[in-house]
Amino acid sequence: MGICITATGLHIPKDSISNEELVTTFNTYVDNYNKKNAQAIENGEKVALQHSTSEFIEKASGIKSRYVIDKKGILDPEIMAPIFPARKLGEELSIMAQMGIGALQNALDNAGLLADDLDGIICACSNFQRVYPAIAIEIQDAIGMKGGFAYDMNVACSAATFGIAQAVGSIKAGLGKRIAVVNVEITSAHLNWRNRDSHFIFGDVAAATIIEELDTPKGYEVLDSKLWTQFSANIKNEYGFMDRAEFLAMDKEMHFDIKEPVNDKLFLQEGRKVFREVCPKVSEIISTHLAENHIDKSSVKRLWLHQANINMIDLILRTVMGKDADKAIAPIAISEFGNTSSASPIVAFHLHQDGVNSGDLGVICSFGAGYSIGSVIIKKV
Ligand code: COA
User: For residues 313 and 279, is the Cβ–Cβ distance under 8 A?
Assistant: First the structure.
């Protein structure tokens, strides 16, 4: 008897944006802004914006491209945001549910299961397109699960491992035998595409993981999970249903121009601080977790890490596995996908299992806002 990850699945949006395309739009926006505000800049009332470069983006992050749902709106220098027509709840599938179903159906097909074989769905993400009803319950209904339960949970970029831990815990508690964790990330809608420091970071994708209790284990057995959180305001997205009240308190009237979003309510981070504070903690959590399970680091064949930044992945790999560690131990998906938030360690896991043999150990590890870190030790059956 064992609790196993038996399959994963992905839904990848059709549009992809290269660094060069992104930078062309950004720099057009900068030139237009500086021209429009030339007098104010000269008077010292405003600061001139600076160009972005593809070279910086690739060197600082390892990102070469990212998938997005709507490339056109993002690449229009007058808009620089994705454009999605509204869908009527109850009559049309929401975009999040549609993407989640794409990934979940792919995972179910890979597991050889039908939707109705599931007992539960946990939709674990960074950003939800509405507060309720839960996206997970919409997926449960639309994919054709007749019974069971579904709920949403948010642990930002760590949501996948926290979701897997919840699924394992639910199975151990007798709430079901087969649970799917779905990570849908429409990061393009929460990103400020006009912020030079972060406009290149994120991409859209959905991932799904099937966790099953089996008499005869298959896939990867989940050996143990470890979760850690500590409050920090260094990575944030403060958009919320209180915004209207806050705007009204500010000036008694809503001045909300969709083309000029309230920038400090979109994604914001202190990138340097995040790098400095999170990397050592991730290494510590993985190392402690392995030690608690009496696992020697040398027997770990893969670290499927959150794809936040190639330099973070490299540093964590070296601090956990030793400075000469083989880079193949920590596979990279960020170059093609960008940072896909909660979905990212599952994207890496889904795409990079070559060379993992029966009995090999691996760690799926996510980290991000909160701060939050999740480590899941798995063993190939
Ligand atoms: N194009 C060109 N230059 C840029 C630029 C851009 N788009 N953005 C910033 N720069 C410049 C800065 O102005 C700065 O110049 P200076 O040295 O002359 O002052 C220089 O590049 C370094 O900027 P900095 O912001 O310190 O870059 P960095 O090396 O820290 O890299 C991140 C930025 C975001 C990639 C990096 O901090 C990071 O990965 N942090 C952690 C991210 C993370 O994991 N977030 C979690 C979200 S889930």
Answer: no
Question: Cα–Cα distance between 67 and 17 in angstroms, integer?
Answer: 6
Q: Residue 263 has what pLDDT?
A: 62
Residues 207 and 350: beta-carbon distance below 8 Å:
yes
Residue 217: predicted pLDDT: 95
| Plot region of 280 (φ>0 → left; ψ -120 to 50 → alpha; else → beta) | alpha
Write the CB contacts of 203 (distance below 8 Å, at least 6 apart in sequence).
65, 66, 67, 68, 185, 187, 188, 337, 338, 339, 340
Domains of the chain (ranges plus CATH)?
2-217 (3.40.47.10), 221-237+264-380 (3.40.47.10)
Query: Ligand 1: does its nearest atom lie under 6 Å from the Cβ of 58?
Result: no
Instruction: Say what the pTM is.
Output: 0.95
Cβ distance 116 to 146 under 8 Å?
yes
Per-residue pLDDT tens over the stretch 326-380: 999 999 999 999 999 999 999 999 999 999 999 999 999 999 999 999 999 999 9
Contact criterion met (CB below 8 Å) for 302 and 352: yes
Q: Look at the block and give the residue holding tokens 């199975």.
A: 171
3-class state of residue 209 by DSSP? strand
161, 197, 268, 337: which to mutate for ligand 1, most atoms within 8 A of CB? 197
* Intervals of the chain under pLDDT 50: none
